[in-house]
Design brief:
Layout: H1 2-21, H2 26-33, H3 37-40, H4 42-54, H5 58-65, H6 67-87, H7 91-119, H8 125-153, H9 158-161, H10 163-177, H11 193-212, H12 222-244, H13 258-287, H14 293-317, H15 323-341, H16 350-375, H17 384-423, H18 430-437, H19 442-475, H20 477-480
Helix pairs in contact: 1-7, 1-8, 1-10, 4-7, 4-11, 5-6, 5-17, 6-7, 6-10, 7-8, 7-17, 8-14, 8-16, 11-12, 11-17, 13-14, 13-16, 13-17, 13-19, 14-16, 15-16, 15-19, 17-19, 18-19
Length: about 500
């Protein structure tokens, strides 16, 4: 059991960390490859687009090729393309290699989750999901920390080259320790190209809109409008086709499980907070507190450490606490941590950041472990790979929605805050009048006032985004009641253990 766990965790950690590790290196990549920031951003966007297209196909691809061959092939593709990314000499090459890397990485996370969930007996699935959660939740926080350290001390190709020895080890271990379960059977028909095309166009279009909407000024951009329509129509056609098909390649009937559907709702919100804040916090640290890449990584680290501590604690607490209570507790703690961040300003020090960040990280253990085990508890073994692919996709899309919405709110609120603050910077304000009248250089004083207004508006906008996240988390608590009530220490019903 331990060797199986280590095998899947190696692949999982590679894929998770690589999704975020490049974010702190984009500026360096742009300088080296002679690319604009808009061009180099496709290094991150292309990877995520490939991820979300592959995730829902996880069940079908596993059945088509067999679990061992499919997982080994994904690791091999990810490892080879990691080497190619590190050797890229143009931005076009790097983007193409990252898309190919994303195809391999997109299947690693849901496949790892399915293997762990099925390999452990029901009474130990809390522990299995705690182990999985260490990669899934801690990875996004470790990525920027590791990436910042590498960029500051070495060069950006190393963030890809470090995958090579890990990938080789994971590939060899997969061949030796991962088995093909007897209950996974080949699909009864070939590829539904029409359904696959609709799904690919729909998910990729929606993901593009969420990733690039703010950059292209949302619906004032014709491309965003066209892709939004494409996404809605493509997904609508795909959903109708799959629900009518007796042998769908993506089985959406798993949403017939109340616990799975409710778990997906909470998964969207947890993805919103995890990925959304993982974008906003580095920006706040760098734009407001003037942190460099290494300092930013260190400021994010307490959250990852706290999650690593809380995951095993949550698994043990699952023996005594009803799963829904634990999920609600995790949501509430994360919301409190986000609300505390709403009080940060330009004078904040390390310890002002440490405690709310640690609380958020600690909350993820109590949220993720029971959420995953309860959401998947009604899923049969033969449908597990399909369900974990959908569950991972939902969380990823929630993260993309969080990034897009928090970015929009921060920018729009910054403009509004700057106008409101600037309206009070008049000679009628005694403090302003005193400053200008006592200044040796009036022009310089006006410049300082303008800079102060802009900085305070930026702080206000980030605080608004943090508090919005807190409120959204609290609003998701009622959805926890839709999940089936479980007994402490029991994480699955018989359906999860039979075909």
């Amino acid at each position: 059991m331990g060797l199986i766990t280590l095998t899947v965790m190696l692949g999982l950690i590679m894929a998770i960390i690589d999704a975020s590790i490049v974010n702190v290196a984009l500026t360096n990549m742009a300088g080296t490859l002679g690319a604009s920031i808009d061009e180099i951003s496709w290094v991150a966007t292309g990877y995520i687009l490939a991820n979300v297209v592959v995730m829902p196909l996880n069940g079908w691809l596993t059945a088509m090729f067999g679990r061992k061959r499919f997982y080994a092939a994904c690791i091999a593709l990810f490892t080879v393309t990691s080497f190619l990314c590190g050797t890229a000499t143009t931005v076009t090459q790097l983007i193409i290699y990252r898309i190919l890397q994303g195809i391999g990485g997109g299947a690693l996370q849901p496949t790892a989750q399915a293997i762990l969930f099925e390999s452990y007996p029901p009474e130990k699935r809390n522990s299995a999901m705690a182990i999985f959660g260490l990669g899934a939740m801690v990875g996004p926080a470790i990525g920027p920390t590791l990436g910042g350290w590498i960029v500051d001390n070495f060069s950006w190709p190393l963030i890809f080259f470090i995958n090579i020895p890990i990938g080789i080890a994971a590939f060899v271990m997969t061949l030796f320790f991962i088995a093909d379960p007897a209950y996974i059977k080949k699909p009864e028909r070939g590829v539904d190209w029409l359904g696959l095309g609709a799904m690919t166009a729909g998910i990729a279009s929606i993901q593009y809109v969420l990733e690039r909407g703010q950059r292209e000024d949302w619906f004032s951009s014709p491309s965003i409008v066209i892709l939004t329509v494409t996404g809605v129509l493509g997904l609508g056609f795909f959903i109708i086709r799959e629900l009518r098909d007796p042998h769908p390649f993506v089985d959406l009937r798993v949403f017939g499980s109340r616990s799975f559907s409710a778990g997906c709702i909470v998964g969207v919100v947890s993805g919103f907070g995890l990925f959304g804040l993982n974008l906003m916090l580095p920006l706040f640290f760098q734009n407001v507190l003037q942190f460099d890449a290494t300092q930013t990584g260190l400021a994010l680290l307490p959250g990852a450490v706290a999650t690593a501590i809380s995951m095993p604690l949550a698994a043990r607490a699952g023996r005594f606490i009803e799963p829904r209570v634990s999920v609600a507790l995790g949501i509430s703690m994360f919301a409190l941590g986000a609300w505390m961040m709403g009080y940060l300003d330009q004078t904040a020090g390390y310890w002002d950041i440490f405690w709310p960040r640690a609380m958020q990280g600690f909350a993820l253990g109590f949220l993720f472990v029971p959420l995953t085990t309860t959401a998947l508890s009604d899923i049969t073994r033969s449908a597990m790979a399909n369900a974990t692919g959908i569950f991972t996709l939902v969380r990823q899309l929630g993260g993309s929605l969080g990034i897009a919405l928090l970015e929009l709110l921060q920018i729009r609120h910054e403009d509004a805050a700057q106008q409101a603050l600037a309206a009070n910077v008049t000679l009628a304000n005694p403090a302003v009048a005193q400053m200008l009248n006592g200044a040796a250089n009036r022009t310089q004083a006006l410049g300082q006032l303008a800079a102060s207004v802009a900085q305070n508006a930026t702080v206000v906008s980030y605080d608004y985004a943090f508090r919005f996240t807190a409120i959204l988390f609290l609003l998701s608590i009622p959805s926890v009641l839709l999940m089936k009530k479980g007994r402490p220490g029991s994480t699955a019903v018989p359906a999860a253990a039979v075909d």
